[in-house]
Amino acid sequence: MNNLHERLRGTGVALVTPFRDGQIDWEGLEKVIEHVIAGGVDFLVSLGTTGETVTISEVEQRQIIDFTLRVNRSRLPIVVGSFSGNHTGEIVRRMHAFDFDGIDALLISSPAYNKPSQEGIFRHYMALAEASPRPILLYNVPSRTASNITAETTLRLAHAHERFIGIKEASDDIYQICKILQGRPKNFLVLSGDDFITLPLITCGGDGVISVISNALPSLFSGMVRAALNGQLAEARNLNFQMLDLYWLLFSEGNPPGIKAALELLGLCSRETRLPLTSMSEVGQAAIRKEFERLKVL
Known about the structure:
globular, eight-stranded parallel barrel, alpha/beta, single chain, TIM Barrel, two-stranded antiparallel sheet
């Protein structure tokens, strides 16, 4: 567990799922995986929010996991995000039927739509901890789930079961994140869930990020994270400021349309998404191109 804690510290990349004519673009996915590994990220996250998992069937999810494992060839740890949902019993059933070979950890968001109480969130995660054969990263993303996991609930879970090894925090609430950092048990990871808040989180004592921008700029972004973790704050600030406008642009028409538009500019995959998401506009992609040209990426 301690070794995994170190391996999941730094920059994780929330991989996109490339599509071509409505189907999974396997060539594009391989290009993206090789691109981010070559760029120096620390671990891969498959089938998270950025991977459009809610639009992907269980059969396709299994295919994506198996393909990612084959391409990765055990070079980096792999975290899988396909066990989020709002039906606790169904997730437990899926866990019992799933082959976890090669998967290092799971990223699981709190239930969306139901809007459970904090006690409901706690019991949901405890049921999954009992069913899961792999460590779990909690995922707090209230902008999507409509219910925040409070610092008190996060810490209650962190101390209640050894299966919980960390949290991806996307509340953007620095006070809440600091409360988690203050009360966390040893080796409980606190990772940023938003690229733009990563540097502030690390300076407060956080451990890294699960990133969107690193699909496109893995070297630049992981370099910023590495500098921050090493206490080289002047360098980290400089790199962060270089990407600041791009952080906003990549989310200006939602996620992952922005990052997919960026990847298309880099020749890695199409900007195609699955409905109900739509591809980024020409205007949006042109703005990203301008930033890439300023950064001398293109």
